[in-house]
């Protein structure tokens, strides 16, 4: 199975799933955006990226799809850990767990890279909490 084709189809399916759900909310317009405008825009862009990826797959060499179930399990455990730790402890601990656990699925492991990624994600979460007023359980 061609990895490029699967990637394009997967991106388009995710975009459709979120895009169709965003249509259940008022879209509004750019001067007065409704709650469905941002997810509709992002899912539209993701659909275009998936479509371009799918079309490109027919013009480049085929790449074999290898499913590594160990890595899939590590990533899923990282995401579940983020949700659980954020709920019962706080989001800072959840983000730290997510980064350090999920990078075990990679080919190389660097604690310094993990610290930098964690710092970047924590800064983004803080900016979303303070700048946009999102209710994120950081503390």
List its traits.
single chain, 139 residues, mainly alpha, 5 helices, flat
How would you sum up the major sheet?
Answer: none
The count of β-strands is: 0
Order of helices and strands: HHHHH
**What is the SS-derived class?**
mainly alpha
Principal-axes geometry comes out as flat
Count, helices:
5
Q: Over the alpha carbons, how many angstroms does the gyration radius reach? A: 18 Å
Low-confidence stretches: none
What is the end-to-end distance? Answer: 45 Å
Helical content class: 55-70%
Query: What do the pLDDT scores average to?
Result: 92
Strand content: under 5%
What would your notes on this structure say?
The chain has 139 residues and is mainly α. Helices cover 68% and strands 0% of the residues. The protein has helices at 3-22, 37-57, 69-88, 91-102, 111-131. Helix 3 runs antiparallel to helix 4.
